[in-house]
Design a protein that fits this description.
Layout: E1 2-3, H1 4-14, H2 27-45, E2 50-55, E3 62-64, E4 69-77, E5 80-84, H3 87-90, E6 158-162, E7 165-169, E8 177-184, E9 203-204, H4 211-224, H5 229-256, E10 271-274, E11 277-280
Parallel strand pairs: 5-6
Antiparallel strand pairs: 1-9, 2-8, 3-7, 4-5, 4-8, 6-7, 10-11
Helix pairs in contact: 1-2, 1-4, 2-4, 4-5
């Protein structure tokens, strides 16, 4: 984490406006620029990852994270991993099913399920009427999970995203821990109205090697504020530096992570042919 007072001092040095009784950029303005630059860099790099824990309540299927996110990495319901899907997939829009096979009222009495008002009785999608379930629960599905299939009772848990909320199907019973690993939008940095020392507890949410990219973004903002030709040229140079620093951070992130990205072809198989003969159970 980068201490905010250090970030302010470094940015002012790069702006050639070090601390003085009347700085060109006061503390509030500098903090605002650093805040916007930090959010911009995180949005491009998708780092760092955060973890949110939410305690579920009665008759609620959708939960809002404390902040907006860039990427959902994993959703756990009382330790059971849920697989990603969408509301459209759950009701079979992708195969023109538009599920209306459910009978009876909603499993959740109006609390958070993404079904329209008046959704009682029959002719509803199955996923909207499931009774809240105690997690973890066993199911007969192996791999792969039915991530592209419409929902029907007995499937493993799945989650969908609706604006700033995450929905769980089947909905969890109250008293369940919903844990979400995600790349969140950073909290907004703030400082007192008066020019006063920054609290040492305040810090940017990113590691120290993000500072050069953040500074380059702040330099772009600052130079764009001046309309003369020299300032605009400096803004273009700072923006080019910003893009260069982003490339460095992307390389760092690939090296930082031990997870290989992308699909891989499985090399094992139950049988193969050689010389016109079929061999079973071989590699």
């Amino acid at each position: 984490m980068i201490p905010l007072d250090y970030a302010i001092s470094w940015v002012r040095q790069q702006l050639a406006t070090p601390n003085s009784s009347q700085p060109r950029w006061n503390t509030q303005q500098t903090v605002a620029a650093i805040d916007r630059a930090t959010k911009a860099v995180v949005a491009r790099i998708f780092f760092p990852e955060s973890r949110c824990s939410i305690y579920t309540i009665q008759n609620k299927a959708e939960y809002t994270l404390p902040r907006a996110w860039h990427q959902i990495i994993a959703v756990w319901v009382n330790g059971q991993l849920a697989s990603p899907t969408s509301r459209e997939t759950l009701q079979g829009d992708q195969i023109f099913m538009y599920d209306q096979s459910a009978q009876g009222g909603t499993g959740l009495s109006g609390g958070g399920v993404a079904a329209p008002a008046g959704a009682v009785g029959g002719a509803q999608p199955q996923w909207t009427v499931q009774t809240p379930t105690t997690y973890p629960f066993l199911n007969s599905f192996g791999a792969p999970r039915p991530s592209a299939a419409p929902f029907y009772p007995g499937q493993p848990p799945r989650y969908y995203v609706r604006s700033g909320s995450i929905g769980i199907v089947p909905a969890p019973a109250p008293g369940t821990w919903l844990v979400v690993d995600a790349v969140l939008v950073p909290e907004t940095l703030s400082t007192p109205t008066q020019e006063s020392p920054i609290s040492p507890q305040q810090a940017l949410c990113v590691p120290d090697n993000f500072m050069d990219a953040i500074t380059a973004r702040v330099l772009t903002y600052a130079n764009m504020a001046d309309k003369d030709q020299v300032a605009q040229t400096q803004a273009s140079g700072a923006d080019a530096l910003y893009e260069k620093e982003l490339r460095i951070l992307r390389t760092w992130k690939r090296q930082y992570s031990s997870d290989d990205q992308g699909p891989y072809m499985q090399t094992y198989r139950g049988g193969y042919r050689i010389g016109g003969n079929r061999v079973a159970g071989g590699w």
